[in-house]
Amino acid sequence: MDKKIKATGSVVEAFSNLLHVRFDGNIRQGEVAKVKVGSVELLAEVIEIAGQIAKIQVFEDTRGIKLNTAVEFADHLLEAELGPGLLTMIFDGLQNPLQKVAEATGVYLSRGVYIAPLDRKKHWDFHPIAKVGDVLKRGDALGSVPEERFSHTIMVPLSFFGKVKITSVTKAGSYNIDTVVARGEDEKGRAVEFTMVQRWPVKNALIEGRKVRPTRMMDTGLRILDTQFPILKGGTFCSPGPFGAGKTVMQHHLSKYSAVDIVVIVACGERAGEVVEVLRTFPELTDPHTNEPLMQRTVMICNTSSMPVAAREASVYMGAAIAEYYRQMGLDVLLLADSTSRWAQAMREMSGRLEEIPGEEAFPAYLPSRISAFYERAGEVQFKNGKTGSLTIGGSVSPAGGNFEEPVTQASLAIVGAFHGLSRARSDARRYPAIDPLISWTKYLNEVGVDLDPKYKGWADKVRATALILKDSDEIGKRMEVVGEEGVAIEDMLTYLKGELYEFCYLQQNAFDKEDAYSPLDRQIEMFALIQKIFDTRFEFDTHDAARTFFLNLQNELKNINFLPYASEKYKEALREIQKKIALKEGKVHA
Ligand code: ADP
Ligand code: MG
């Protein structure tokens, strides 16, 4: 292959981590550049080109950069290295493996140190799939290796275009990732060879397949999500909320319990030490579905505090590329970003340095398009072999003061399929998860009904009817605050009590209780049916007091069921007791 001469340049101006570089040769937007400071090379990215001046942002501390500091352009975009060995890894935004970094230099990287993302020495059991004579295209399987409990597909890289005729395939055996596993001839008769590693530019979506409409529910074990505001595999959701409302706790819950194969977590910590805490605790957790270490299905991208904000931006994209890679194998992947506001702030800082015309709250005018492009990488994809894979994306948003009328929340709401808004009032009242059912929504309710068992036909309608009860209950509650309990009709008070019961016994969930933390879908369906029964029952009470007493008792008994092991004798007994109790009161006049 002809080797291109790489473009080079030198620094003419520096403004924090934004450098103006005069260059010779051909470069493109998004290309990686290396800034040579003494013996270290700092990674940077081209963000603007005007004539022979490139504006580049450095991902690291820029001390030591001077006029005429040399810059070399790498002739490739910011890329992720993809292959067996990504699972269990914790990377920074530039894909440095942080566990290895910790072994080498303590928790944080020294400046200019880059460590190969994947282990070059480790051997993997390769099983060939392609055969000599096969004509393949990008994304087609060459073979597979077992990685944790998954079959990791080794494919024709997505950077390969056209057809390749396979001329040899390496036999089954144990090899490292740089081993050539297949050779072939491209359409022009040139020899090509493939290893177990490929590189994808991180900023653009990569898919080989056809996007289809998502229809499968992503079961999370959180009742307020699965029942009231469900998410689909391949869908998107966002959870804005004020500081301390429980966004991070919720994202951790989702990473633990969501019914997907692979979880990619992008942690842009809000509090100092939060990311370190994640690094410390996460590797010790077990997967509640398989009892295996949770890390076996997880890839984590963490921003270390030693890196400037530019690396935060990279980390969101790095996470997306890794997530897309596993989707391409036909797996269900969940990408969680906490918090996307930190990423938006990085954009704002850079935009300020570029002296772009600022939009709302000084965010760049392209903020909404960047946010949409990120969420649009989600989706259910059908591949040529009939298999499907999905990428679900969920981001938290942390607007200052919990004000949702700000650009990051608004741009996210404009694109996502489900909105789970956390409220300060609820977290202050310790009503967790603090998702406000009166403001939250999902566009996936109808599809969820399709995915569920036929016996739950009409589920979506019941959920909608329940939302109305919540709304009425809230209004009546407010009225009662003014006029007192006796000031409203008993009928109205019953609606209020029903809404409260649903909130207290069903929507609230204790993230730290062994049984309550995760509510399997069957359990949700059973409990929801029981609550529907309560909603449909025509209770008759003589006095407001009698109604209140009856409901408070019922509420406590129902709540206690949440803490009993699912389908245990005690659980079944408690359900029967409640059913009896309701039947007794049905239509009876009570003195
Ligand atoms: P945020 O990320 O929104 O700033 P966190 O997720 O860190 O907030 O939550 C702050 C605190 O609130 C937690 O440390 C925990 O004490 C409490 N909390 C949040 N969610 C729950 C929950 N589901 N159950 C019990 N406590 C919770
Ligand atoms: Mg948080």
Kindly describe this structure.
The strands form five sheets. Strands 8, 18, 19, 20, 21, 22, 23, 24, 25 and 26 form a ten-stranded mixed sheet that branches. This protein has a six-stranded antiparallel beta barrel with strand order 1-2-5-4-3-6. Strands 12-11-9-14 form a four-stranded antiparallel sheet, with no helix packed on it. The chain is globular and about 90 Å long. Helix 12 runs parallel beside helix 14. The protein folds into four domains: 5-77, Thrombin, subunit H; 124-196, RNA polymerase II/Efflux pump adaptor protein, barrel-sandwich hybrid domain (OB fold (Dihydrolipoamide Acetyltransferase, E2P)); 210-445, P-loop containing nucleotide triphosphate hydrolases (Rossmann fold), CATH 3.40.50; 459-590, Bovine Mitochondrial F1-atpase, Atp Synthase Beta Chain, Chain D, domain 3 (Bovine Mitochondrial F1-ATPase, ATP Synthase Beta Chain, Chain D, domain3), CATH 1.10.1140.10. Helix content is 32%, strand content 24%. The protein has 591 residues and is an alpha+beta fold. Magnesium ion (MG) is lined by residues 247-248, 270, 338.
Can you give me a brief rundown of this structure?
The chain has 591 residues and is α+β, with helices and mostly antiparallel strands. Adenosine-5'-diphosphate binds next to α3.
